Amino acid sequence: MKLETTIQGLCASLKxxxxxxKIIGFVPTMGNLHQGHLNLVREARKKCDVVVVSIFVNPIxxxxxxxxxxxxxxxxxxxxxxxxxxxxxxxxxxxxQMYGNKPRLTNIxxxxxxxDLCGLQRPGHFDGVAVVVTKLxxxxxxxxxxxxxxxxxxxxxxxxxxxxxxxxxxxxxxxIARAEDGLALSSRNGYLSEENRQIAPMIYKTxxxxxxxxxxxxxxxxxxxxxxxxxxxxxxIVDYVEARSLELQKVETFNQDVVLFVAAKIGATRLIDNxxxxxxx
Length: 281
Ligand code: AMP
Prior knowledge:
Blueprint (H helix, E strand, L loop, with lengths): L1 E3 L2 H13 L4 E6 L5 H13 L2 E6 L19 H10 L4 E3 L3 H5 L18 H4 L3 H16 L3 E5 L3 H13 L5 E5 L19 H6 L2 H14 L4 H14 L3 E9 L12 E9 L2 E9 L4
Parallel strand pairs: 1-4, 2-3, 2-5, 3-4, 5-6
Antiparallel strand pairs: 7-8, 8-9
The structure holds adenosine monophosphate.
C-alpha cells in the first residue's frame, strides 16, 4: 500500500494500472475510518484490480457552525486499517493541493433532491460534496466508486450528477454498517458522551419499530409521528423524520418501497440514519 499526498504523485502511480487496462475502484472518505468505511473498501477489492481510498476532510461541505476544525484526523490509524483490507493507494491531499490558492468559480449544484432532508439544515453542503467528489473523480478516474447508504441522500446526489454529466463511472451503493446495538457507524459517534452513546441506538430501534407498524398497515403519517415522539421522549432534538421513495420523491402513503429518514441531535452531536422498508402488496 502506498500513501500519495499529491495529485501528480497519484496520477503517476495510476498511469501504469490504466495502461494495463486494470479496473480502478475508488472509495472517497473523510478518514477516521470504521467498519462502515472498510466494507466499502472490501466491496471495491472484490470488484476491482486497483483500490484507491481518499482521505480528505473537505472544508467546503461544512457549514460555518459545523465541526470542520474538530473533525477527527487519524491518518496513522486509518493507514493501519486500510492495510488489513487490501487498499492499494491512500490519497490524502492537503486542502491547498485540492483547492489551490486561486478562487474557485465553478460550482456543481444538484437541484430538487437536495432541497430538503439534510439539505435544509445544511445549505451548500451537497454542493460542497458534489464539487469535491467531481474533483476526486477527475483525479482518480475510477471505473467504480463506492458510497455508503448511510448517507442515502448523498448517494442519490452523486448518482444524479454522474448521470447528468455523463461521468463514465459506475456508482455502487453499500449497505449501512451498524454497531451490535444497531447504531449506524459514524466518525461522529466518537463525539458522544457515554450516556448519550447508550441512548443513540434508539434511532435504529424506532426505525425498526416503524417498519413493523407500516407492515401492520398503520398510516404512514402516524408512524412518522410516533418516531418523533419516541425520539423526543428519549432526549433527542429531532431535525427531521421523513418517508421518501427510493428516488427521494415525497410519499403520502405506504404503497411502494420507502426509505424512512431520521436526523436528530443528542447532546451536541447530530446523527443521521435511514431504513428501507419493502412494500409487500
Ligand atoms: P465519510 O468519511 O463520513 O465522508 O464517509 C465516507 C463514505 O463511507 C461515505 O460513502 C459514507 O456513506 C460511507 N459510510 C460512512 N459510514 C457508513 C456506515 N455506517 N455504513 C456504510 N457506509 C458508511
